[in-house]
Specification:
Length: 201
């Protein structure tokens, strides 16, 4: 049975940390494919400015070019928002039956999972939750189990090199005129530079 990972995010911008974590998830979880799901309209960021979709889409295309294990999945782009994870999983399961679905998330998202839309259904719908924990972050599975029944049995922690890169930090560095070239793939750097993205604080 195919094991397919779902890696969702705004990717504003996609950076080397995303790629390193995705590669580790692909290897450690024994995935056959990893779908990168670009979220145009994330519910938790509706009051924040997000770079227009076409720029993020172009950057993500550039990021994934040349790696056959990674695939840009348009499931959220092709439908109106806001985009909830449970709806994404429902659609993918209907389109691709007989698949072991692995939903990737960060430790912060796991801690907040009980606040997501239909968290019990989401946990029940996937084979595993691949969790990438930031350095120094703490996860209390017993406490999480009280809030979202069944979650502790689904969690698979992903070990990865310590990566202190975040999209928000990159945006701030661009705005401040600080170096960021080696935090993102070359083609993403060119898009940010040529289109003048993130220069206004």
């Amino acid at each position: 049975m195919a094991r397919i990972g779902i890696f969702g995010g705004t990717f504003d911008p996609p950076h080397l940390g995303h790629l390193i974590l995705a590669a580790e998830a692909y290897h450690q979880l024994g995935l056959h494919r990893l779908l990168w799901v670009l979220t145009p309209d994330p519910p938790h960021k509706q009051k924040k400015f997000i770079t227009p979709l076409q720029h993020r889409l172009d950057m993500l295309h550039a990021t994934l070019a040349g790696d056959p294990n990674f695939e840009l999945c348009p499931v959220d782009i092709n439908r109106p928002g806001p985009h909830y994870a449970i709806d994404t999983v429902r659609i993918l399961k209907a389109e691709h039956p007989g698949v072991d679905w692995i939903y990737l998330m960060g430790g912060d998202s796991l801690n907040d999972l009980h606040t997501w839309r239909n968290p019990l259904e989401l946990v029940a719908s996937v084979t595993s939750l691949g969790v990438m924990v930031r350095p120094g972050a703490k996860i209390d599975l017993a406490d999480l189990e009280k809030k979202t029944r069944g979650v502790s049995a689904k969690v698979k922690f992903i070990k990865a090199p310590l990566i202190g890169i975040s999209a928000s930090e990159i945006r701030q560095r661009v705005a401040d005129g600080l170096p960021y070239r080696y935090l993102v793939p070359l083609e993403v750097y060119k898009i940010i530079h040529d289109r003048g993205l993130y220069r206004i604080k």
